[in-house]
Amino acid sequence: METVVDASTSEEANGSAVEKKPTVVFVLGGPGSGKGTQCAYIVEHFGFSHFSAGDLLRAEMNSGSENGLMIRSMINEGKIVPSQVTVNLLQQAMEESGNDKFLIDGFPRNEENRAAFEADTGIEPAFVLFFDCPKEEMERRILNRNQGREDDNIETARKRFKVFLESSLPVVEYYESIGKLQKIDAARAIEEVFESVKTVFASINEKED
Ligand SMILES: Nc1ncnc2c1ncn2[C@@H]1O[C@H](COP(=O)(O)OP(=O)(O)O)[C@@H](O)[C@H]1O
Ligand SMILES: Nc1ccn([C@@H]2O[C@H](COP(=O)(O)OP(=O)(O)O)[C@@H](O)[C@H]2O)c(=O)n1
Ligand SMILES: [Mg+2]
Questions:
Q1: Which of 16, 106, 125, 200 is the least crowded, having the fewest Cβ atoms under 10 Å away?
Q2: Residue 49: beta bridge partners?
């Protein structure tokens, strides 16, 4: 007869080899508030991997995947793509990165996004950055962005602002209510905004080099 399970295997199974959960910071703010811009600086200074939910969805849309057409029509209407699609893309990107510190930008954009991520990954954010910016300034930035995005036109931008107010702000308020929100005045020059961002991250862990 085969030997029974040995001691080392059962030790792993009962938790001695449990992995540490990754650190996740969600980066929220209205369309054009400067999330992507600030994330690039955070990556340089603090060693996080940055994933923009919008960028991952655009890549998926252009990859010829079966969800491509659905994603394009949602994005062009400023609507939020079903959470399962976005959470799967984020999970895959995190797994492939090999890192354990993630900035997730433009997510969660509604309560369904928030709940799906938590249910599927078991991860809660360490904290949530919120870039607070007046609508007029966000509108100016979007219309000057020049990245060739189909949704950066005035008509879609207005739909995105409406979705932000109705669906995304309640998530921001939720994180505020549990004491996890770090609100930053984003209506200043890029360098000034980053000074405030640095203060928040410096208290966590400075990149060692
Ligand atoms: N503090 C700022 N002041 C002026 N323009 C900014 C600032 N931050 C970002 N921008 C510009 O505004 C546009 C939107 O910024 P982006 O980082 O793409 O925002 P988001 O990811 O929140 O939509 C970009 O063209 C960017 O260069
Ligand atoms: N969590 C998310 C993030 C983006 N999106 C879609 O992608 C679009 C662009 O998101 P984005 O984060 O790149 O846009 P910005 O806030 O950077 O301007 C959104 O308007 C949504 O249509 C989504 O459906 N779900
Ligand atoms: Mg962005």
A1: 16
A2: 102
pLDDT tens-digit map of 124-175: 999 999 999 999 999 999 999 999 999 999 999 999 999 999 999 999 999 9
What residue ranges do the domains of the chain occupy?
22-200
| 103 alpha carbon – ligand 3 mean position (Å) | 12
How far apart, in whole angstroms, are the C-alpha atoms of residue 67 and residue 78?
Answer: 16
Mutate to test the pocket of ligand 2, among 73, 75, 77 (most ligand atoms within 8 A of CB): 75
Cβ atoms of 185 and 196 closer than 8 Å: yes
With CA atoms as reference, report the closest residue to 128 among 147, 142, 143, 109.
Answer: 109
Cα–Cα distance for residue pair 14/146, rounded to 1 Å: 54
Contact assessment for residue 88 and residue 40, using Cβ atoms and an 8 Å cutoff: no
The 8 Å CB, 24+ separation contacts for 198-207 are 198/45, 200/127, 200/129, 201/42, 201/45, 201/46, 204/23, 204/46, 204/126, 205/46, 206/45, 206/46, 207/45, 207/46, 207/47
CATH classification (class only), 22-200: alpha beta
